């Protein structure tokens, strides 16, 4: 293959849009491709269809210089790119645990018939192991250039809210390849990062696919481990935040992903552990991953426990009680509400008769679309006005910085339940609040 100068990025969600902007930042000419004309037009105009800190600022100069463009045409993409990154979603199938890889199939089916010169197609989506091998055949069968349209797999580990930093300064690069040409091409693409010392691991297809899902399985397990300890702490009268802090000093354990609270949500961890279990079942090794059922169950139990604490704070029932919910996004620095623990709790409280008002710094518009029956406010104080209990469910900095004395002036009763163990309990108590939290006395 000739030296890489032009890259396409197919699928422009938070992964693809970030990857496109970061590839432009590394100096490549980049064409972003999306089947949704509205999304492509928005991005071309420099507006993000979602919130990601710093990304609009990164897009702007590259759009202005023309180094980065967006289109809906797969034909244009095939003609443009030396390397084509596949960044489309692999959501959970409706009513099943397995991942839906049909968007990948569709992307390949749109692109491959136009691939008439040697190129590298690079999958970044999170997939069931075996998908890359299947897609490699699919591409070679459909491309006029045949097997000279090669596939590689290069899983993405970025976190929403930290997408740019995680892309430009990743912990590692993992590439699953079948040829030295594919490896050399990816070494060239990522040369600026490799030069900075980012580890570059070369594997087969299956291992590269598994690295991603096992990383997410491990992170989910770590969160559910500490949340299981929170359950024990609640029964024993112990404090999970102190327990977690003490554990974190052991370098073999470490403190990251050891924050007990409402647990994990979002578009990745929950669906990835379920898809991983489904795939293990297909491979005949379901027993290897049955522990992930428990990880999932512990995670979901935290949401019910949160509702129980909120009900207790309301005197045993929600009827006639006003409940302020601070947070709708699945985590701070994001407007993503997919499988959001906060909204799940808000909806349960409302179902049980609570009069719920939600506020989130970025996610209210998305929340309103998915949960139109909930009431929304445009500030934390607006949500809390007249409330009998305040539920802190997404740990935005804005909520940690609230003056509890001032908030106490607008509520009906000074009761707060901290679902994220992120508020300063002493400060809230000093301001006259009854403070409760998950995993603490
Ligand atoms: C996750 C992984 O962290 C990324 O490495 C991966 O690339 C990404 O999924 C993906 O597969 O695309 P993300 O879903 O953006 O990233 O968010 P995380 O920061 O991992 O948080 C996930 C959830 O866990 C959030 O709901 C968060 O509140 C929760 N969490 C996290 C805890 O409850 N406790 C913790 O200690 C840490």
UniProtKB/TrEMBL annotation:
Catalytic activity: UDP-alpha-D-glucose + 2 NAD(+) + H2O = UDP-alpha-D-glucuronate + 2 NADH + 3 H(+)
Entry's EC annotation: 1.1.1.22
Signal peptide positions on this chain: none
Residue ranges of domain UDP-glucose/GDP-mannose dehydrogenase C-terminal in the record: 324-425
Pathway named in the protein's UniProt entry: Nucleotide-sugar biosynthesis; UDP-alpha-D-glucuronate biosynthesis; UDP-alpha-D-glucuronate from UDP-alpha-D-glucose: step 1/1
SUPFAM superfamilies: 6-phosphogluconate dehydrogenase C-terminal domain-like (SSF48179), NAD(P)-binding Rossmann-fold domains (SSF51735), UDP-glucose/GDP-mannose dehydrogenase C-terminal domain (SSF52413)
Alphabetical list of Gene3D superfamilies matching this protein: Cytochrome c1, transmembrane anchor, C-terminal (1.20.5.100), NAD(P)-binding Rossmann-like Domain (3.40.50.720)
Pfam families assigned: UDPG_MGDP_dh, UDPG_MGDP_dh_C, UDPG_MGDP_dh_N
Alphabetized UniProt keyword annotations: NAD, Oxidoreductase
Family from the record: Belongs to the UDP-glucose/GDP-mannose dehydrogenase family.
PANTHER family the UniProt entry points to: UDP-GLUCOSE 6-DEHYDROGENASE TUAD
The protein's name in its UniProt record: UDP-glucose 6-dehydrogenase
Organism: Yinghuangia aomiensis
